[in-house]
């Protein structure tokens, strides 16, 4: 019996030790964060509707916003509203924005919720193309009556001559809407482009979190890409959104050649890429450039002239950072950034965003000086790729139509600009494009990813 007790006690001790070791191993394992995209999108849509929309409508003096959609026809505001088939009518009734849905909602768990008023099943079937050739205009009378009861002075509708994201209504739906509401209320229709600009560019904290996580995933992906580059084997075209800037061996002749194989003495950049939190119809993009230099045999650092050009470029982040503040107009911020750089000895070379013209501007401005030139393009970022049609406050000489737009809190933007410096062996000054997505809060520009600080050396 005593022998059995000793064996039993020993087994208990072994089990305890094993469980302790197992517990330590489990606790030491890295936790992998995988977000539920439906849950995240639901949070964003509901908070945008509850917290952002009321002030956006009031600031733009909009009493009613009619958002339209057709099931099967892609809508540029799917991120905000999901998929609808009919009219989603948003009305400022004072204490809240009332939500009325005439038609079908096909948005799943991430769709618009808390609808205050639903139209009839007959209207839903009419929008859903049940027996479409026998639908009488009178079936939509309830929509006209609803709008008349609210008696809005201004009705925003999604049409725009220049802003694609605000041009979602189809021609047939626009004509149907005007028939439903009649001449009296048709005359009160205005473009929703300013409202949509405001609604989309006012960011939630949740959206900044998504953007920051996307950028960190992209940074880690880029570090792996840079580590795998092999001189004489890796072509510039194999790298994501990359560009060759300087080549010790081939000069400038291969700068636009995607088949060029990287050699020792080459300076280039790659753009960070990720596919984190891809909502399908939209995703938060990166627009962040990472620079690499392939060391020559015997080199331990980048040549002095190239390093100086890069250092001149990254200084701009620290010079201009404090100029970007919430509550200021884009045009005023652009002027302040330009002055801050000029005060530090840089020459302003305003871009047109046309390659050949911009190179000529740089050559002429820096022809008889050893100073560095600079150009600025701080544009809106987030769930877009920073195209010219991107809405929101932007600071660039070719985006002056946004000079009047205020920088709002939680503004997500690409801190992008270029610095041009003479380098021996190049006819054209070397242009270093600094670009990293950041956010503006009440504290100023906060780094939600590391700013450009160094060139990655490849052996």
How would you describe this protein?
The chain has eleven helices and 16 strands. It is α/β, with parallel strands linked by helices and 459 residues long. The protein has two domains: 37-200, Creatinase/prolidase N-terminal domain (Creatine Amidinohydrolase, Chain A, domain 1), CATH 3.40.350; 203-458, Creatinase/methionine aminopeptidase superfamily (Creatine Amidinohydrolase), CATH 3.90.230.10. Strands 4-3-2-1-5-6 form a six-stranded mixed β-sheet. Strands 10, 11, 12, 13, 14 and 15 form a six-stranded mixed β-sheet that branches. The termini are far apart.
Query: Residue-averaged pLDDT, rounded?
Result: 89
Tell me roughly what share of residues is in helical segments: 25-40%
CATH superfamily of the largest domain: Creatinase/methionine aminopeptidase superfamily
With helices defined by DSSP (H or I, 4 residues minimum), what is the helix count? 11
- Termini, distance in Å? 70 Å
Instruction: Tell me the strand order in the biggest sheet.
Output: 4-3-2-1-5-6
Fraction in beta strands: 15-25%
Shape annotation:
elongated
**Low-pLDDT sequence parts:** 13-22
Any idea what the CATH architecture of the largest domain is? Alpha-Beta Complex
Structural class: alpha/beta
Rg from C-alpha positions? 28 Å
Element pattern in H and E: HHEHEEEHHEHEHHEEEHHEHEEEEEE
CATH class of the largest domain: Alpha Beta
């Amino acid at each position: 019996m005593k022998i059995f007790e000793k064996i039993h006690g020993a087994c208990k001790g072994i089990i305890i030790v094993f469980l302790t070791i197992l517990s330590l191993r489990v606790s030491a394992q890295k936790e992998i964060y995988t977000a539920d995209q439906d849950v995240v999108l639901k949070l964003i849509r509901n908070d945008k509707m509850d917290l952002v929309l009321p002030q956006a409508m009031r600031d733009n003096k909009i009493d009613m916003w009619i958002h339209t959609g057709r099931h099967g026809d892609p809508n540029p505001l799917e991120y905000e509203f999901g998929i609808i088939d009919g009219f989603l009518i948003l009305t400022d009734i004072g204490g809240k924005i009332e939500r009325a849905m005439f038609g079908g909602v096909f948005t799943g768990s991430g769709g618009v919720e808390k609808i205050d008023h639903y139209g009839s099943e007959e209207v839903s079937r009419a929008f859903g193309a049940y027996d479409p050739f026998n639908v009488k205009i009178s079936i939509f009378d309830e929509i006209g009556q609803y709008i008349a009861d609210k008696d809005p002075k201004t009705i925003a509708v999604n049409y725009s001559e220049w802003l694609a994201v605000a041009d979602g209504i189809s021609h047939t739906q626009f004509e149907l809407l005007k028939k439903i509401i009649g001449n009296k209320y048709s005359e009160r229709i205005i473009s929703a482009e300013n409202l949509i600009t405001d609604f989309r560019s006012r960011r939630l904290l949740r959206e900044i979190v998504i953007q920051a996580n996307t950028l960190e995933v992209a940074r880690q992906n880029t570090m792996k890409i840079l580590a795998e580059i092999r001189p004489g084997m890796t072509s510039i075209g194999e790298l994501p959104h990359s560009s060759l800037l300087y080549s010790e061996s081939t000069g400038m002749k291969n700068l636009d050649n995607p088949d060029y194989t990287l050699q020792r003495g080459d300076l280039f950049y790659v753009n960070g890429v990720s596919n984190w939190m891809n909502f399908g119809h939209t995703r938060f993009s990166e627009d962040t450039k990472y620079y690499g230099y392939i060391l020559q045999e015997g080199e331990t650092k980048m040549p002095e002239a190239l390093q100086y050009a890069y250092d001149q470029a990254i200084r701009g982040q620290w010079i201009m950072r404090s100029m970007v503040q919430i509550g200021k107009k884009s045009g005023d911020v652009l002027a302040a950034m330009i002055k801050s750089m000029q005060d530090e000895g840089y020459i302003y070379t305003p871009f047109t965003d046309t390659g050949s013209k911009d190179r000529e501007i740089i050559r002429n401005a820096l022809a008889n000086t050893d100073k560095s030139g600079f150009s600025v393009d701080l544009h809106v970022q987030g769930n877009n790729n920073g195209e010219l049609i991107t809405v929101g406050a932007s600071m660039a000489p070719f985006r002056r139509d946004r000079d009047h737009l205020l920088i709002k809190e939680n503004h997500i933007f690409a801190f992008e600009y270029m610095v041009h410096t003479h380098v021996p062996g190049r006819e054209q000054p070397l242009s270093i494009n600094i670009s990293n997505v950041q956010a503006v809060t009440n504290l100023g520009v906060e780094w939600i990813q590391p700013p450009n600080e160094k060139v990655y050396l490849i052996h």
